[in-house]
Specification:
Blueprint: E1 5-14, H1 23-29, H2 31-51, E2 54-62, H3 71-77, E3 82-85, H4 91-102, E4 109-112, H5 121-132, E5 136-140, E6 146-151, H6 170-180, E7 185-187, H7 197-206, H8 212-219
Length: 222
Amino acid sequence: MNRPLPVNVLVVAKAPVPGQAKTRLAAAVGNDLAADIAAAALQDTLDAVAAARVAARTVALTGDLNLARCGPAIGSQLTAFTVIAQRGMDFADRLANAHLDAGVAGYPVLQIGMDTPQVSAGLIEECAMTLLDAPAVLGPARDGGWWALGLHDPAAAACLRTVPMSRPDTGAVTLRALARTGLEVRLLATLSDVDHLADIDVVRRECPRDSRFGAVTATGGA
């Protein structure tokens, strides 16, 4: 058996609670369906990370799973992960702190979100191998943001604290912020993430046929 890649894959996640999850998407499909879609995306992401050949897996979680869609099932999946609480005043702060907290495991940290359910174990392993060969990696998203960030030095994530999030230029600003730290940044594959109704069909086509995301968006009216 091949040895695990010495990388900690960090999933930054929000409990899919109706009214709190996928609020931009909820404006189009309603709070309940938006939370169902968020739950499916998170579960597919957790499955992919759990199947990846990596040394450590962490979830930085915010929100109450007891109020979430598929809360018990997600809780069961999380037994394969080290779970830490998100901390910070805003999303950029929470991302930077999550890198610091995950970095105590002693491995380079490859951070992804829960908005790219098409991610596979194979792709995660490819990204991890790229990170092992570079001080930093960034996975661009087609909407101008990013879906993955990998760092050997978790302290380097401090540059995220000044990056405006959820904007069309977030990816470009993040890349410049990383460059100012003196790091060489290797780019990963570009993926679509799910924020708006128009994103759903694109992402569904990239998901496996048996994915939870594909099932809930095909039958849920999205």
